[in-house]
């Protein structure tokens, strides 16, 4: 188990942390977590569409970074450290037009100075929409 103190993260608190920033504006909400993964969903609507009515690739990347960064942060003592994105990539597999997409971020490596997470974004039918990987830097908050 990678979570700080071995305790599953508080999903409502994770959602609330982003309520007044980009995650809140995009409608991202955390929905589940396991031993080394966390999931959040995001609506596919006018907030997240590109001009042609499809899920914007940038919205997918924002969702991927949000889920992994928050997951990474939940492995740390937030009074001392946090995580920030160092590098992210994304492969957009299929379009999404409406409903919700769900991102599940799995920790591949949770080291002292960097973390690597893989993020799978799926549609409501469970089909892969986007596959992403992020490297997070673990930084001091002081």
CA gyration radius, whole angstroms: 14 Å
Largest sheet: 6 strands, antiparallel
Give the proportion of residues in helices: 10-25%
| Strand line-up across the major sheet | 1-2-4-5-6-3
User: Count of DSSP E strands?
Assistant: 6
Coarse morphology: globular
Query: Uncertain regions: pLDDT < 50 for 5+ in a row?
Result: none
* Proportion in β-strands: 35-45%
Structural class: alpha+beta
The number of distinct helices, counting runs of at least 4 residues, comes to: 3
Mean pLDDT level: 96
The topology string of helices and strands comes to: HHEEHEEEE
Distance N terminus to C terminus?
A: 27 Å
How would you describe this structure to a colleague?
By secondary structure, this protein is an alpha+beta fold. It has three helices and six strands; from the N terminus they run ααββαββββ. The chain has a six-stranded antiparallel sheet. It is globular, with a radius of gyration of 14 Å. The mean pLDDT is 96.
């Amino acid at each position: 188990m990678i979570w700080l103190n071995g305790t599953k993260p508080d999903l409502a608190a994770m959602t609330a942390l982003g309520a007044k920033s980009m995650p809140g504006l995009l409608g991202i909400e955390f929905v589940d977590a396991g031993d080394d993964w966390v999931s959040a969903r995001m609506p596919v609507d006018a907030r997240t569409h590109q001009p042609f009515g499809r899920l914007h690739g940038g919205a997918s990347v924002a969702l991927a970074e949000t889920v992994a960064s928050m997951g990474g942060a939940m492995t740390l003592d937030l009074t001392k450290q946090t995580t920030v994105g160092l590098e992210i990539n994304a492969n957009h597999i299929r379009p999404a037009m409406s409903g919700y997409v769900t991102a599940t971020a799995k920790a591949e490596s949770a080291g002292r100075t960097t973390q690597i997470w893989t993020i799978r974004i799926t549609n409501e039918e469970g089909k892969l929409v986007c596959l992403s990987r992020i490297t997070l830097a673990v930084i001091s908050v002081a």
